[in-house]
Design goal:
Strand content: 15-25%
Bound molecules: ligand EPZ
Structural class: alpha+beta
Number of helices: 13
Number of strands: 23
Strand order of the largest sheet: 21-22-1-23
Shape: elongated
Oligomer: single chain
Amino acid sequence: MAAFKITGGEPLAGCIEIQGSKNAALPILAAALLHRGVTILYGCPNILDVQYMIKIMRSLGCEIEQEISYLKIDASELNAEHLSRECLGKMRSSILLLGALIGRCGSLTLDYPGGCTIGSRPIDLHLNALKAMGVHIQEKEEQIVCSSNQICGKRIRLPYPSVGATENIIIAAVLAEGVTWIDNAAKEPEIIDLARFLNQMGSCIHGAGTDCIGILGKCSLHDIEYSIMGDRIVAGTYLLAAAGTRGNIEIKGVQIKELQALLHICEEMGCRVQNCGTSIVLDSKHRLFSVKDIHTQPFPGVATDLQSQLMSVLSTARGETTIYEHVFENRFQTAEELGRMGADIQIKNNRAVIRGVKKLKGCPVCAKDLRGGAALIIAGLMAEGDSIVENSIFVERGYQDICKDLKQLGANIKVINGD
Ligand code: EPZ
């Protein structure tokens, strides 16, 4: 299994253009299935999860042309019976096919989605919403069997602003009869990007980015060319890498409002943050300070997808910081690995108490999930000596080429064959 080898101690410096967003691309790819025609996407990240989704879409009968600068999808002909099961279990976002394929094909049998070990990740909110929209759903051992003659618009109140459930309802509502309203909807920027994509394709969606979204169904859709937003989590990862290595970097391709909560913490840690209009500059000259309690929350709160990376950076700050993880129940696995590097982190239920130590020491560690892997790479960049981060495959699920990006910022990192 491949691994990353990192020699720490180099402050990151320079400018980087951020890749397209994984968490916008995946729902947009699923939504492309709604249209009996051609979609051309620019900025679609070349990451494992996108490769899995492309494989699934090809098995459904999509013709897909993947070039460096664009992805062309022709979804004129679809047949849900040919759905390949091989990739379904590999990633959670396969659940987003539900809304699209029921609308297009009327029936679908889907395996329960797999994915990271960060929590049990039930899909009850997705299924309850689709049932409310008139979809007949049978849950069998490993599979969900769905059918519907016609999806119906409905007012749906989500008990929790789930990102995936909000996206699935939006996608299903595009081909539904009548109007669908989602109350307590998720407000993530990726939801805005999905709605912008669908509106440009001819749909009629209002309120994306707020907690109340309205979708008028059955609008006629047409061919489209669309540029996917930049990845705010990748951007946040690199900003934190600069903060932890006392670096100075400029990132391009994401909007500052998508990272407000994180940038406030960076300033509290003692970094200087500048909004340069089309780019963000972060300068970190000194040892960081600990900060007030951090609580992960749905957007616009602190993103759970940056929690592990924050833990790495705060492990050498002056003082003690407590992080509360409120979104996923098993997302502190990286703490143990950071402990091997000399970090002092005590976990109790959903709380991590991080007592800053002077230095981390490079050593072999193991990535256990996507963002945890990125956090260990940051720790390796901050540490004294060499670190080996095993299971690079986790990181490749969401980072197009983290080695090339970090090298461009002056890091000493490479991919090696592990164990
Ligand atoms: C999306 O996952 C992201 N994935 C996740 O990013 C991100 O961590 C998460 O939103 C929260 O921001 C993609 O966009 C592909 P949720 P999703 O539904 O849609 C519970 C990364 O690292 N829940 O908002 O799965 C669930 O268990 C990934 O890029 C139910 O109980 O997140 C969790 O505790 C990791 N029932 C909470 O809600 C449901 O039916 C948030 O889940 C659905 C969710």
